[in-house]
């Protein structure tokens, strides 16, 4: 694109030539009013909402308040008749516009949500019978590698043929692996919906596993494994998983040398056999969101997938319980030379599945502790007040099985121990003394208020509908989700802190150039 294949070699050299005068010249040329685009966001409340109209917010001292031109959404959608002008998904849902769900004769679950805001369509999918939970123990990674090869050629199309079809229409189709299921995705203009289903079904139903593409993928994967050997974050993540879960558990992680060994040994027959045993329509879920007619979309799915014969004997996903962790703390140090940043992971199995009634309460708890990044207790104390880390966050990974609760941060090697001490102190404090009513209200306000933003694209909505199907949350999950959070009380959060936080237990993993108090840990 730059016209010079050596561009990267000269980049730093050219960068060093830039002077303050150059920066001023470029600023005066490009940072001018005619190039400017300004958007104004004005929070409002519905007339019948508590508190009435939103209060005016005065401009900060020394700042001239803008006087924006009033504009309306209709000004931007002149090409569509009034009846087709966009409405938000949440607004449509409030009027009962639930998605449509059908189950085809061969077992495929299809969920369709119309959204005519833009002439696009997105598809998300899960093949519940093809996740790495079904990997043979001596071939961990087979499921993911198999899924990745489906897009590299079919019985009637080469990889290049597929690329030409999709790129010609600005479309994309993807298939990938996962712990619990193989994931599917597609996106494009709604006029190309037929093409998306054609390519997706061809890749799922008629993969060729071409030998040359398999070898390319093997080399690429091995190169990725090799480069990860010096990646402190990757190394910490693998060690953390293996400290909490036994090798036979789907949530454990293969060490890099074992990943490389499996990749080198996999054969085309391994992929063909896994595909034959696990790819069928019985447990396939497809969610479709966009500028489509519901019944037409269902008919199109039947056209491309309806004659795919079901197996009838596919096993269901079963994630075993995580082993209990009652202490003491397990510490693992992974030396990686010449690193300016150390990556740290701390946590324990959460004891929560996505279907748990406590899920929403635990998520509020996590947001207050570390999920809010800059506004959380960990962010405010470890990052802002003490200045010990570049960033610190916590997460609650509840899925079909009991994923881990974890805290992660990166810091200067000299600050690792003090950051860990403050992290432990904050977890113990919230376990013993709980949270405040204001913290709970703020967390719920964010978790509910930001939800509409996450539904801003068809792909995001399709993803939410897929989540609802995978975890049996109901067809009306999108409509009810915020109410689940609003029902959480401060007493609920404090009870969850006692129940799910386990100070002093679990695993602490430190990866990087580190010589602190835990340096002697094996």
Structure description:
This protein is α+β, with helices and mostly antiparallel strands. Helices cover 41% and strands 15% of the residues. The chain has helices spanning 7-15, 20-30, 89-94, 142-149, 159-168, 193-205, 211-228, 232-244, 256-265, 268-278, 294-305, 359-371, 377-385, 416-433, 437-449, 451-454, 458-470, 477-486, 490-500; strands spanning 100-103, 109-114, 120-127, 172-176, 182-189, 284-290, 330-335, 342-349, 391-398, 402-411, 507-512. It has a 6-stranded mixed beta sheet, with helices on both faces. A 5-stranded mixed beta sheet has the order 7-11-8-10-9, sandwiched between helices. Helix 7 (211-228) runs antiparallel to helix 9, helix 12 crosses helix 19 and helix 13 packs antiparallel against helix 14 (416-433).
- Poorly predicted residue ranges: 49-57, 62-66, 68-87
Broad shape:
globular
How would a textbook summarize the main sheet? 6 strands, mixed
Strand order of the largest sheet: 1-2-6-3-5-4
Discrete helix count: 19
Structural class of the helix and strand makeup?
alpha+beta
In percent terms, what proportion of residues is strand? Answer: 5-15%
* Spatial extent as radius of gyration: 26 Å
End-to-end separation: 48 Å
- Give the H and E element order: HHHEEEHHEEHHHHHEHEEHHEEHHHHHHE
